[in-house]
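sry for the spam today, last one i promise. C-alpha cells for design, 662 residues
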C-alpha cells in the first residue's frame, strides 16, 4: 500500500474516537499504562507479572538482555496450568464455565473450571505413566476438540513441552517437527470434522511413523469420529482407556520462569520448519495482559470467542492460555463456521447450505468479544447481509481481527454490519515469534482509523527504519522492534545461528521479521504485509498488498489476491483474482471495469494485466491464501502439493474461470 493510497483512505474514512460506552473500560480513556511503561519498562512488566500471575516463588530480576537473547522474571517459579485452572477453583469459581464447546456436527459440551482441572490432572498422570517427565517434548496433532486443550495444559502441569501440529498438515510435516523436537509421544485422534466430513488424522500419524519420527515411543488416540483405525500393539493407546482409571490428584510442578513451555513451528518456502521457542513466565504475563486489556475483558460476565485454530499461535495465546489465565468463559468451535449442524442440512449441495452458523453461535451463547481473521471478514462480505437476518448480535461489545493487514473497506463492513456501527474494533498485529499482541488499539482509549493497527501496546517499542537502519519519523519503512518484550521467542530450537540470521541480522540490534509499515502524520501505523511480496513491473517495485487494496476498493469486490506472473515484456505482469460481493454477477465487462478502477486509483503502472473473477480463492485450512498456486495457474504450471488446501476443487474452478477470461 503506497503513501498515496493510505492518504486516500485517511481522507475518505473518518477517525473513530473512543466510544462513549467504554467510559468504564479496562483502561477507561486513561493512558497511565502507556506513561508507566514509557517511564520504566521493566517496572511496568514486573507489576503486570505480579498482578496477573500467581508465582510460587517471586522473581528477583525482571530482565536479562544479552542481545539477541532475553530472559524475563529470573528467579521466579510458577506453573501454567495452576494459573489457568487451580487458582480459579481455589477462589470458588470451579462451577464457572471455562468452555462452551461446539462440534461441527452439532454436538456440544459445557466444561467448567473444576471439570477441566480434573481432566487435565488425569491426563497429566497418563503422561507420567507413559514415562514423560519435565524437559521432554511431545507432539499434538488433533482436531479442535476439548482434548486438545486438555493435552496442552497437562503438558504444562508437569513441565513437558508441547509442539502442536496443525491438523491439516501432511505426514511429512509431522516427521519434520517430531524429528527436530525429538518428540517422545504423539497425541492425535482418529479424525476430526471439517466441512461436514470426517478428516482422517491417525492415518497420517501412521504414515509419518512408518517413514520417520523415530524418537516417538507412544501414540495416544482420541476416538472423535468413530472411524476405523489401525492400532499398533504396545505403541498406540486409546485416550478413553488411559483416562478410565487415571487419578485426578496431580500436583502442579513448580517451574522456572524460563522453562521451555512449547515449540511452534513456522515454515518458509524453501527452508526447513523453524521451531519457535516460548517459555513460561514472560509468555503467560504478556498473553494475560493483552487478553485482558485489548479485549476490555470483564471475566465475570463476558463470553469470549476467538474463532481461530489452536494449531496456530492465535489459538495457543487467545483460545487456551490467555483466556484461562484470566478466568473467563470462552467459545471453542470445531471445523468451519459456514458448515451447518448435521440435523440442519437439507441438501448434499454445499452451495445451498445456510451460512449463518457463526451468527447463531454468537446469539446462542451471548458472545461479547469476537476475534477473527481478515480473511473471514472478507468471506462474510462475499456472503452479504442476508445471513445476518433474524440474528441478535447485540451481546457483542468488542470486535477483533488478527493476522494480515485488514483493508479499510473490510474494516468498515465489519464495524457497520457486525458491530452495529458502535462496537470498537481491535485490529491486532503480532506473530508466532512475538507470542502475544504487539500493535493494536485499546478499547476506550484509542481513536481508531479503519485499516490501521494504530499503535503499540504499553510496554512494546516499534520503530520504522529505512534501508540504512535509520529511524523513519513519518512515511514508509521496515517494521522493527527495538526493545525486548516478555512473550518474545527465546530462539529457534537447536539452531541459534539461524535465529540470529533470520531475525537480528538485517538491522543489527533490532528484531525484524520481514514486514513493512507506514507511519502517518498522526503517528498511526499501517501494516503493509511482507516486504518480499513485491513485484518488479518494468523496473518498478509494486507490492501485491497495494494492488489488492486497489481491487477491493471497487464496490463489487469482496476479496482479492494478486500475484506477479512472468512476462517477456515487463519482467512480471500483475494478475488479480477477485471474489465479488453478494448480488454482483461475474462478466468480462465487470472484470475490465475492476481492472481500470485500479489504474484510476493507483496509476497506470499498477493496472493488472488481467483480472479474473473467481468463486473462491485457494486457502489453507487456517484461511491463508496460497498465492503460489495462483501464480502457477497464471503461468500454466503444474500445481504440485495441494494437500493443505481446505477445498482442492477451488483450483479447478479458478483455472476454468481464467480460461474463460483469456
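last one done:
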Amino acid at each position: 500500500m503506497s503513501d498515496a493510497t493510505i492518504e486516500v483512505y485517511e481522507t475518505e474514512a473518518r477517525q473513530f474516537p473512543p466510544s462513549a460506552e467504554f467510559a468504564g473500560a479496562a483502561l477507561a480513556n486513561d493512558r497511565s499504562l502507556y506513561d508507566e511503561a514509557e517511564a520504566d519498562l521493566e517496572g511496568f512488566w514486573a507489576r503486570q507479572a505480579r498482578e496477573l500471575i500467581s508465582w510460587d516463588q517471586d522473581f528477583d530480576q525482571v530482565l536479562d538482555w544479552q542481545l539477541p537473547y532475553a530472559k524475563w522474571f529470573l528467579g521466579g517459579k510458577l506453573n501454567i496450568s495452576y494459573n489457568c485452572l487451580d487458582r480459579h477453583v481455589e477462589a470458588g469459581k470451579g462451577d464457572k464455565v471455562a468452555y462452551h464447546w461446539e462440534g461441527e456436527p452439532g454436538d456440544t459440551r459445557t466444561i467448567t473450571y473444576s471439570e477441566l482441572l480434573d481432566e487435565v490432572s488425569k491426563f497429566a498422570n497418563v503422561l507420567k505413566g507413559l514415562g514423560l517427565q519435565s524437559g521432554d517434548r511431545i507432539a499434538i496433532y488433533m482436531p479442535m476438540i476439548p482434548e486438545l486443550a486438555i493435552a496442552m495444559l497437562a503438558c504444562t502441569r508437569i513441565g513437558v513441552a508441547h509442539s502442536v501440529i496443525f491438523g491439516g498438515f501432511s505426514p511429512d510435516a509431522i516427521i519434520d517437527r517430531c524429528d527436530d523436537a525429538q518428540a517422545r509421544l504423539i497425541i492425535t485422534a482418529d479424525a476430526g470434522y471439517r466441512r461436514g466430513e470426517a478428516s482422517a488424522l491417525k492415518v497420517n500419524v501412521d504414515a509419518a511413523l512408518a517413514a520417520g519420527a523415530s524418537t516417538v515411543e507412544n501414540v495416544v488416540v482420541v476416538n472423535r469420529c468413530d472411524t476405523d483405525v489401525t492400532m499398533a500393539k504396545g505403541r498406540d493407546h486409546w485416550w478413553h482407556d488411559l483416562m478410565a482409571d487415571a487419578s485426578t490428584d496431580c500436583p502442579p510442578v513448580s517451574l522456572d520462569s524460563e522453562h521451555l513451555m512449547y515449540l511452534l513451528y513456522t515454515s518458509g518456502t524453501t527452508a526447513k520448519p523453524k521451531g519457535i521457542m516460548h517459555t513460561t513466565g514472560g509468555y503467560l504475563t504478556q498473553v494475560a495482559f493483552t487478553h485482558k486489556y485489548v479485549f476490555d475483558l470483564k471475566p465475570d460476565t463476558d463470553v469470549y470467542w476467538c474463532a481461530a485454530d489452536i494449531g496456530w499461535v492465535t489459538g495457543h495465546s487467545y483460545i487456551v492460555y490467555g483466556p484461562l489465565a484470566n478466568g473467563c468463559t470462552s467459545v471453542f468451535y470445531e471445523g468451519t463456521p459456514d458448515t451447518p449442524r448435521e440435523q440442519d442440512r437439507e441438501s448434499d449441495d454445499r452451495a445451498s447450505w445456510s451460512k449463518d452458523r457463526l451468527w447463531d453461535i454468537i446469539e446462542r451463547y451471548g458472545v461479547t468479544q469476537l476475534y477473527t481473521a481478515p480473511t473471514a471478514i472478507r468471506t462474510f462480505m462475499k456472503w452479504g447481509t442476508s445471513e445476518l437476518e433474524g440474528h441478535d448480535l447485540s451481546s457483542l461489545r468488542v470486535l477483533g481481527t488478527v493476522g494480515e493487514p485488514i483493508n479499510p473497506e473490510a474494516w468498515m463492513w465489519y464495524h457497520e454490519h457486525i458491530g452495529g456501527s458502535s462496537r470498537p474494533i481491535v485490529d491486532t498485529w503480532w506473530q508466532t515469534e512475538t507470542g502475544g499482541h504487539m500493535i493494536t488499539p485499546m478499547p476506550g482509549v484509542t481513536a481508531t482509523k479503519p485499516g490501521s493497527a494504530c499503535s503499540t501496546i504499553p510496554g512494546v517499542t516499534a520503530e520504522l527504519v529505512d534501508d540504512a537502519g535509520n529511524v523513519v519519523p513519518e512515511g514508509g519503512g521496515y517494521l522493527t522492534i527495538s526493545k525486548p518484550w516478555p512473550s518474545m521467542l527465546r530462539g529457534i530450537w537447536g539452531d541459534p545461528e539461524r535465529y540470529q540470521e533470520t531475525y537480528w541480522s538485517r538491522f543489527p540490534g533490532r528484531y525484524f521479521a520481514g514486514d513493512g509499515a507506514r507511519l502517518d502524520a498522526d503517528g498511526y501505523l499501517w501494516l503493509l504485509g511482507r516486504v518480499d511480496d513485491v513485484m518488479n513491473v518494468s523496473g518498478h517495485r509494486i507490492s501485491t498488498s497495494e494492488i489488492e487494496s486497489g481491487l477491493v476498493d471497487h464496490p463489487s469486490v469482496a476479496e482479492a489476491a494478486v500475484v506477479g506472473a512472468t512476462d517477456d515484456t515487463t519482467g512480471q505482469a500483475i494478475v488479480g483474482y477477485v471474489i465479488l460481493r453478494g448480488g454482483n454477477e461475474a462478466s468480462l465487462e465487470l472484470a475490465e471495469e475492476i481492472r481500470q478502477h485500479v489504474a484510476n486509483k493507483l496509476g497506470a503502472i499498477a493496472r493488472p494485466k488481467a483480472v479474473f473473477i473467481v468463486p473462491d480463492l485457494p486457502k489453507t485450512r487456517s484461511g491463508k491464501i496460497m498465492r503460489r498456486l495462483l501464480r502457477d495457474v497464471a503461468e500454466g504450471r503444474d500445481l504440485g502439493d495441494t494437500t493443505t488446501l481446505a477445498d482442492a476443487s477451488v483450483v479447478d474452478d479458478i483455472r476454468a474461470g481464467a480460461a474463460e477470461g483469456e
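The first strand starts at residue 61 and ends at 66. ok im logging off now
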